[in-house]
């Protein structure tokens, strides 16, 4: 097959990866907008390189005209989570969607691979609307924690270096590193509530500061420079020494001031 032909075949996969990235990033954004903690930390995606497609097809004896039906990870999405139980929350979110049809799932967290690899895989069938009509493609979703991702990234590079196979001695060290990464996941799960409280506090604080700053700008636009400057210095003082309650009180005060001066401006 010529490169031009490959490029044509890969178009719907590229589109699927872009669309799926947007969809999963939107879930994260929505949680954040609601001042809630997202089970999704970050999302990446890629279309498999032509050379890797050919290599995998050869390894599994897939004829070129069957690649689109039998190679499930030409379109690949990776969803990273902070905590192991977030992975299962993301799985539930995906199971409840109507725009992705799950073909099958592989839980490499319960069924750890020989190498030490852990992740949750979902193979989905996804509709893509191209210029020439609707087409269904297969995509692989890999859902994992930050620690699992760290390990898999390192192991992947070593696999690349040792084309003939990673030496046994390094393999057993890698296995130990995978178990250490999983122990880390378990340890942070034990203090998850503490971590989430701290993150939530941070989210609430930054949202209050954004609101107050926007109100200060409104006061300036209403010509209330003196009041705006007063609120600005109150805000700076609270940011350096105050707490969240003081921020909430300041927000209420400035909201009242905006209502008052807006009323005066329009009367
Ligand atoms: P933001 O503002 O950083 O959240 P893209 O095409 O750029 O949307 P791509 O090319 O698929 O995404 O993947 P890329 O560039 O590897 O990373 C995708 C997103 O994941 C980027 O965020 C990265 O910042 C983020 N990312 C990658 N590695 C890490 C990591 O180790 N930790 C964290 N927290 N984030 C990471 P965005 O989407 O550009 O936006
Ligand atoms: P790439 O470069 O990441 O795309 P396999 O039997 O592993 O060859 P299979 O049966 O199609 O492949 O599916 P499986 O086992 O679910 O693995 C699919 C993908 O999961 C792999 O794609 C990797 O991305 C990841 N993966 C699976 N096992 C390991 C592992 O031991 N280490 C790391 N780092 N990643 C793994 P590709 O095509 O192998 O590679």
TrEMBL record:
Pathway: Purine metabolism; ppGpp biosynthesis; ppGpp from GTP: step 1/2. Gene3D superfamilies: Beta Polymerase, domain 2, Nucleotidyltransferase. Keywords: ATP-binding, Kinase, Nucleotide-binding, Transferase. InterPro entries: GTP_Pyrophosphokinase (IPR052366), NT_sf (IPR043519), RelA_SpoT (IPR007685). GO terms for biological process: guanosine tetraphosphate biosynthetic process. Transmembrane segments: none annotated. GO terms for molecular function: ATP binding; kinase activity. Residues 45-166 form the RelA/SpoT domain. Belongs to the RelA/SpoT family. Homotetramer. This is Putative GTP pyrophosphokinase. The lineage of its organism: Bacteria, Bacillati, Bacillota, Clostridia, Eubacteriales.
């Amino acid at each position: 097959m010529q490169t031009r032909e490959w490029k044509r075949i890969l178009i719907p996969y590229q589109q699927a990866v872009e669309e799926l990235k947007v969809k999963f990033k939107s879930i994260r954004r929505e949680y954040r907008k609601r001042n809630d903690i997202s089970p999704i930390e970050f999302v990446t995606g890629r279309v498999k390189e032509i050379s890797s497609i050919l290599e995998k097809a050869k390894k599994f004896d897939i004829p070129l005209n069957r690649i689109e039906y039998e190679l499930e990870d030409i379109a690949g999405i990776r969803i990273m989570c902070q905590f192991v139980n977030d992975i299962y929350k993301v799985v539930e979110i995906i199971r409840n969607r109507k725009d992705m049809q799950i073909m099958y799932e592989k839980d490499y967290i319960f069924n750890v691979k020989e190498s030490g690899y852990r992740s949750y895989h979902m193979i989905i069938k996804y509709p893509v609307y191209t210029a020439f009509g609707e087409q269904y493609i297969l995509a692989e979703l890999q859902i994992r924690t930050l620690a699992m991702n760290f390990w898999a990234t390192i192991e992947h590079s070593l696999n690349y270096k040792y084309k003939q196979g990673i030496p046994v001695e390094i393999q057993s060290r890698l296995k130990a590193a995978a178990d250490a990464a999983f122990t880390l996941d378990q340890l942070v799960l034990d203090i998850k509530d503490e971590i989430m409280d701290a993150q939530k506090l941070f989210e609430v604080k930054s949202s209050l500061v954004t609101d107050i700053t926007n109100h200060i700008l409104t006061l300036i636009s209403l010509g209330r420079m003196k009041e705006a400057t007063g609120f600005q210095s109150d805000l700076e003082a609270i940011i350096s020494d105050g707490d969240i309650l003081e921020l909430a009180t300041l927000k209420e005060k400035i909201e009242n001031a905006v209502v008052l001066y807006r009323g005066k401006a329009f009367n």
